[in-house]
Each structure stands twice: as structure tokens, then as C-alpha cells.
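User: Structure please.
Assistant: Input sequence and predicted structure:
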Amino acid sequence: MISLLAVMGDGQAIETATVGREGTVGAMSGLGPWHAASRAVVTAPGTAFVIAASRLQDAVKQSEHLRNVILHYKETLLAQVQQTAGCNALHDAKERLARWLLQTRDRVNSDRMPLTQEFLSQMLGVRRTTVTVLATVLQREELIRYHRGYVEIINRNGLEQAACECYGIIRQRTDQALPQAVYRQPSFAATTPTLSPDDR
């Protein structure tokens, strides 16, 4: 999984969107010159494919379908950024943490995720002590199990109820724009062969 971060002048950053198996980073470069407006940081391990922008642009010129997929994904990513901005401003930290855990679970396809309190505080834009309190609450409600360096979702339905509306909205928009972006499938890394250097 990759987090897209808005970075301030003093170095503080907050997550504005996440990208997992359903998407890609830099796809818009296939439509022409493009400059990233955010910092992309790998936040969960996995396997990824890389293609040069020039090769992607050549492929887009030859395929209207590929161009349309990129445009649909651009629409989905923009909707996620806008929804996340509203979520960060209007919803309480517990709801946002539940939403973030669900989004991450969808993208890494595992209920057990390597996450530290420090990392979660940066992604949510809250103090580390706030994350500690919220994780304890969710654990007492038997929605998650928190280990040192790991969070495990043990009651997905309950966590969805604890999350704000933004999780469902982002998920629905993704499903509508990218109907083939199946979340609950075998691990990408486990089903995809490793590329040789010549194929990258």
C-alpha cells in the first residue's frame, strides 16, 4: 500500500489518499506531462510493477480502453482525496481511525497489518497519545486486537459501524468507477510472478 501525503512547509504531513491493489501511482503521466502534487510513501509491503512514463504514454496512444481506465481511476482518486479532506475536518478521530483501518485492510487483503502508533498518528494528523487511547477503546469494544507494531481486525462489521460514512462512500465510488477492482481476492504478491529486470 502507498500513502499519498500533503506535506507542509515545516515538514508535517497528513495522508490524503491511499493506493493499493486497485490502483497505481503516477498513472496520469500516461496522459501527458504530469507533476506530482503529493509525496508517495510505501506504508505496507507488497509487490508492484513499474513502467516508464514514456512507455505508458505509447501504450495509451494505442489503446482507448487503457486511456479510459486511467481517466476513471483519476476520477476515483480525486473523489477519495476530496472525501478524505472532508473527513479530516469534520469527523472525530475514532471514526477516522476505523475508516483508515478498513481502507488499509481492503488494500493489503489481510486482517493483520503492521502498524505502529507513531505511523498512525502521522497518517491521521493526531497525537500519538490520541492513537493509544483510540486503539484501546476499539480493542475494548472487541473490534481490533492491538499488538506492539501490529493491528488485527477481529470484527469487521463492528468496525464498519464504528467508522464514519466516508469509508462506505469511498468504497462505493471505487466500485462504480472501477468495477473490476476486486478487493477480496488472493494476495497480489502471491499470485503475480516476479518480473525479471528486462521486463521492468
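Residues 2-191 form a domain with the Arc Repressor Mutant, subunit A fold (CATH 1.10.10.10).
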